[in-house]
Amino acid sequence: MIRKLSVLGLELNNYGIRESLEATEGFLRNDVMNVVRLVTMEQLIMASENEEIHRALESADLAVIEDKSVLAEAGITSVYRINELKVGAFFEDFMLRTSRSGYSIYLIGPDKNKVSIFRSRIEEKYKHIKLLGEGVIGDDISKNENTLNDINVLLPDIVISILESPDQDVFINNYKDRIYAKLWVGLGADDPEAQNRSVVGNLIRNVIGGMLFRRHSGKLAARTGNDNNDEREM
């Protein structure tokens, strides 16, 4: 299997679900905070236009690809690799392992309501999960500091974030070295527990991902062509 793939200027690891889960277990045994990010085509397109997102994704210790269109555009044709790619599959297995192992969790989101809804889903589905607390991250630096302090007082094993980009990326870029946890899992704004994981739902997401990529590639090609024309006119 190809271990690295390149999409829109970003180098990502090409791990399957089992390998990704094994990697997270290794992260939970070391003494530094590692960052795991769930990645979609839409996010990669945003990263190609936003330096904060690009830097955060590139520096992540593990990027879990959630979108078949990412593999397609990277030229990955392995039938097994493509078939195992289902939105939410990694997170569900990760949470089952976490609940069995007794690791503690702290939840982060853009506002109290969204975090509360996400917490209810987690508690309903994973009965033995150990939730220590929850916090909000946004434009208010003082509230961000309060959330950071809360994490560092409670000392959770895992921070799970449903922050959207670029808020999540900016926070990680600025605060990563100050977060006293073993693992940060960035789900993005559409957490897996809220998504429809039906065959039709996944098909629609993959089609949209491919359309976004082609549209973005067309814009880049047009921009490059204009730049070349400008150079010739000079």
Describe this structure in words.
There is one protein chain. By secondary structure, the protein is of the alpha/beta class. The chain has helices spanning 17-27, 41-47, 51-59, 68-73, 79-83, 89-101, 112-125, 141-154, 167-175, 199-233, and strands at residues 4-7, 10-13, 34-39, 62-65, 104-109, 130-136, 158-161, 183-186. It has one domain (4-190, 198-229). It has ten helices and eight strands. The strands form two sheets. Strands 4-3-8-7-5-6 form a six-stranded parallel beta sheet, sandwiched between helices. A two-stranded antiparallel sheet has the order 1-2. Strand 7 (158-161), helix 9 (167-175) and strand 8 form a beta-alpha-beta unit. The longest helix has 35 residues, at 199-233. The chain is globular and about 45 Å long. Mean pLDDT is 82; it is low at 196-210.
pLDDT < 50 runs, ≥5 residues: 196-210
Largest sheet: 6 strands, parallel
What coarse outline follows from CA principal-axis ratios?
A: globular
Order of helices and strands: EEHEHHEHHHEHEHEHEH
What's the overall average pLDDT, rounded? 82
Number of extended strands: 8
Widest beta sheet: strand line-up = 4-3-8-7-5-6
Individual helix count: 10
> Termini, distance in Å?
47 Å
What structural category do the secondary elements indicate?
A: alpha/beta
Question: Considering DSSP H and I runs of 4 or more, what fraction of the residues is helical?
Answer: 40-55%
- Taking Cα atoms only, what radius of gyration do you get, to the nearest Å? 19 Å
Proportion of residues in extended strands: 15-25%
Number of domains: 1
